[in-house]
Amino acid sequence: MVSFRLCDEKIAFTYKFMKLSEYFLPVIKENPKEAEIVSHRLMLRAGMVRQLGSGIYNWLPLGFAVLKNIEQIVREEMNAIGCVELLMPTIQPAELWKESGRYDAYGKEMLRISDRQEREMLYGPTNEEIITDIFRKSCKSYKDVPKFLYHMQWKFRDEIRPRFGVMRGREFYMKDAYSFDIDEKSARESYFKFHAAYLKTFERMGLKAIPVRAETGPIGGDLSHEFHVIAETGESALYYTEDYSYAAADEMHKPEAAPEGVLQARGIEVGHIFYFGTKYSDAMKAVVRNQDGQENAVHMGAYGIGLSRLVAAVIEASHDDSGIIWPESVAPFKVGLINIKSADEKCVKICDEIYAKLPSCLYDDRAESAGAKFATMDLIGLPWQIAIGPRGVENGTVELKNRRTGEKQELSIESAIAHVS
Ligand code: ATP
Ligand code: MG
To answer: Which of 7, 117, 124, 378 has the highest CB neighbour count under 10 A?
Structure first.
């Protein structure tokens, strides 16, 4: 019997149904010593990631499933504002970076490599140069703009201090989008379309993300916002008022300009958007003709989201002493089905029946103790748990638990299924 079904609609790359005996979920009981923050600890314990080298991680099936769900939410919100997906390579030739002037400016964070012909190459830390090159080769007229393009790709930055697991990795997964406009006015409108899309994106992941004015740094430009999730373990200091009228990251905070009673908190940067005008298009001669036939440098913006960092940020925002609590929108499976007595034929039969009817399920069919199974389910944080034992089988009932509230209900099989569907 095939115990899994390939997902049908949205989540194209991960399983919606799985028996734990056939899955790969290497959970760890003890707290790993190397993990300083709760998300890192829980990602290791829940068998989501394993470190391969400093700041470089293997994504195991459970972590990979969450990453794909986060990716899909971002994809839907990008597509919704007319941003078009493409894919650029991880390895880039140095020439384009010399053209923009950033090859030397970028410094030691850039991983520089050379091929067998001794051509200078690099592992992309970001993609402004590549996308500008793509644009300038094909788009020449005011009719070609506005244009929004994005991709999701692994980046490498040789961070001086990789830490906190995937929160600050060296290899990490990012969605980066780029906008091209005829002039500043239109470019600013584009910028605020992304700004609004970002708020929606993070909200769909169950996160409250605060946009704060930020410095543009090596990307350049004059308008920039970072999106921060409040968490004690966040690396950035934030200053904001209750209604975020005032909200600034550390570098931009001006105590004399801040209103009275400004609040202070730590934040995790999950997104960063920039309008940088013609910085790259001037240097790389990306021009479009206007209606009068005059050539002008195109106005650009860049919009990043830390996809792999978000997996950790969601955990920082949503967990308890027993483990992770996934918001339904990013959960690797919706329901954890627990067979309390896997040697009991009647229990197996009922579990198999329920398994076939649930919307998305990880079924713990292993010959483990009930206690161990409940602890694993709490640790991996699926939104719902359905437990079935000999007593319930006699009464035709199951126990349904809401992972977030801890609330348990004794329900008939049908109403439990209806409840989670
Ligand atoms: P940070 O200030 O955290 O170093 P950044 O300003 O260098 O980030 P951007 O260039 O704005 O980062 O990249 C876009 C997004 O990619 C960031 O908002 C963040 O969520 C994510 N990101 C950046 N660096 C890392 C990293 N080393 N590990 C994981 N995610 C990262
Ligand atoms: Mg930033």
So the answer is: 124
* Range list of H helices, 205-285: 279-284
CA distances from 336 to 156, 195, 256, 404 (A): 35, 36, 52, 13
Residue 154 half-sphere exposure toward CB, CA atoms < 13 A: 14
pLDDT at site 1: 37
Write down the H helix ranges in 119-277. Answer: 128-138, 184-204
Asked whether 270 lines ligand 1 (CB < 6 A), one says: yes
Q: What is the pLDDT of residue 221?
A: 66
Our mutation pick for probing the ligand 1 site, out of 309, 311, 316, counting the most ligand atoms within 8 A of Cβ, is 309
In this predicted structure, what is the pLDDT of residue 14? 66
Higher pLDDT, 48 or 218: 48
> Measuring from atom 3 of ligand 1, which residue has the nearest CA?
269
Cβ of residue 171 lying under 6 Å from some atom of ligand 1: no
The residue whose CA has the least distance to atom 29 of ligand 1 is 168
What number of other Cβ atoms are within 10 A of residue 125's Cβ?
20
Atom 28 in ligand 1: which residue has the minimum CA distance? Answer: 168
- Indicate whether 3 pLDDT > 70: no
Count of residues in the chain: 421
Pocket test for ligand 1, best of 37, 128, 174, 229 (most atoms within 8 A of CB): 174
Query: What count of Cα atoms within 13 Å lies in the side-chain half-sphere of residue 336?
Result: 26
Choose which residue among 173, 176, 272 to substitute to test ligand 1 binding: the one with the highest number of ligand atoms within 8 A of its C-beta: 272
Q: Tell me the CA–centroid distance for residue 123 and ligand 2, in Å.
A: 19
Distance of CA 317 to the CA centre of its chain: 13
What are 21-74's pLDDT values in tens digits?
Answer: 999 999 999 999 999 999 999 999 999 999 999 999 999 999 999 999 999 999
**Cα dist from 70 to 73, 229, 314, whole Å:** 5, 15, 10
Strands 408-412 and 120-123: unpaired
Neighbours of ion ligand 2 (CB under 5 A): 272
Tokens of 184: 């500043």
HSE of 408 in the Cβ direction (CA atoms, 13 Å)? 9
